[in-house]
Design a protein that fits this description.
Largest sheet: 4 strands, antiparallel
Structural class: alpha+beta
Strand order of the largest sheet: 2-3-1-4
Bound molecules: nickel (II) ion
Number of strands: 4
Distance between the termini: 20 Å
Order of helices and strands: HHEHEEHE
Strand content: 25-35%
Low-confidence stretches: none
Radius of gyration: 20 Å
Shape: elongated
Length: 133
């Protein structure tokens, strides 16, 4: 089991009250878990600024599949980057639009470069990258 270290943190009462209300609304069972998640989020955000870090991530894309070239281009890019892209999920949202969730594992700079290229492809209506560890 992972070792737990206990540390005291000082808060002003208003900040603590607001934080506890927010944590309760989000469904946290205790304050410590809510604080740990905030710290982890900060660490992930910091790591995602380091081009050489190795991370995992998802890119969510929405595009109109009536543009036949777009699916071909996106698939081509994914095959070309098969070492970086480990999985893709395709969902038909409605008669026109598709959503693709592309899963990456690799260096931050390579993930961002490929995600930017895919998002910038003409016809992509929405693109958002989320990096995690
Ligand atoms: Ni589709």
């Amino acid at each position: 089991m992972e070792k737990i270290i206990r540390k005291g943190i000082a808060f002003d009462p208003d900040t603590l009250k607001s934080f506890d209300e927010q944590a309760k609304k989000k469904g946290y069972s205790n304050r410590s878990e809510a604080i740990r998640d905030l710290i982890r989020e900060s660490l992930v955000a910091e790591k995602s600024q380091d081009d050489e870090s190795v991370m995992i991530g998802t890119l969510t894309l929405v595009y109109n599949h009536h543009d036949h070239d777009i699916q071909h281009d996106l698939t081509h890019m994914q095959h070309h980057k098969h070492g970086l892209i480990i999985s893709t999920m395709h969902t038909h949202i409605n008669a026109n639009d598709c959503m693709e969730v592309v899963v990456f594992r690799g260096k931050v700079k390579d993930i961002k470069e490929t995600a930017d290229r895919m998002t910038a492809r003409k016809g992509v209506k929405f693109g958002r990258l989320v990096l995690a560890q």
